[in-house]
Amino acid sequence: MTEIEQLKLQIDRLESRHEIAALATSYAIACDEHDMPRLVNLFTPDGSFGSHSGAMVADGRDAIEAMFIGLFKVRGPAFHWTHDHSVTFADNDPNRASGLVLSHAETCPDGIVSLAAMRYYDDYQRDDGVWRFKKRVISFLYYVPVTEYKTVLGERNRVSIGGERMPADYPESLPAWQTFHDTHVATDA
């Protein structure tokens, strides 16, 4: 690769990183505003949305739209915000990347004010100069009514859906977490 080609690639990646960050922000805004046309257009036509637990699964824009309509019907007002965002570009394709977005949300499912901490595992694809989600998978550290927040981090079942408490998606499932606990915590018992 020539020096000029290398500089063009670096500039493209800098611009793409900014565009992908804006994509994550647009997702949060579209969710909060229940803006279905905007939300659906953030995904490639064959894009997918899923959850670590398997509770949410949608393949293709029509299925993504139907899933979010169902969610928004019961969720009420919400406020999503993103924090750190890492992006890794594919070495063999300048139009593909993957990322991890750390975020929080305040929501109101079934009229119950709730808090959530999430990670989004993303695959991005650029078509006709526009970056979109090819795949988005959500994982929850916790999702609970505000009244339960003060004690929830000490519990394994930190996700409340429809009044039922379920195990959180992470960090207990992460290899680094498991290795640390196998090495340093389990040996203390």
Please describe what this structure looks like.
It is a single chain. Helix content is 35%, strand content 38%. The protein is an alpha+beta fold. It has one domain: Nuclear Transport Factor 2, Chain: A, CATH 3.10.450. The longest helix has 31 residues, at 3-33. The chain is globular and about 55 Å long. The model has no long low-confidence stretch (mean pLDDT 95).
Task: Give a topology summary.
Blueprint: H1 3-33, H2 36-41, E1 43-51, E2 57-59, H3 61-75, E3 79-89, E4 96-107, E5 114-127, E6 130-145, H4 149-152, E7 159-161, E8 164-166, H5 175-185
Q: Class by helix and strand content?
A: alpha+beta
Q: What is the makeup of the main sheet?
A: 6 strands, mixed
The shape, in one word, is globular
Order of helices and strands: HHEEHEEEEHEEH
Ranges with pLDDT <50 over ≥5 residues?
none
What is the compact description of this entry?
With 189 residues, the chain is α+β, with helices and mostly antiparallel strands. It contains five helices and eight strands, in the order ααββαββββαββα.
Keywords:
about 190 residues; alpha+beta; Nuclear Transport Factor 2, Chain: A; six-stranded mixed sheet; two-stranded antiparallel ribbon; 5 helices; about 40% strand; globular
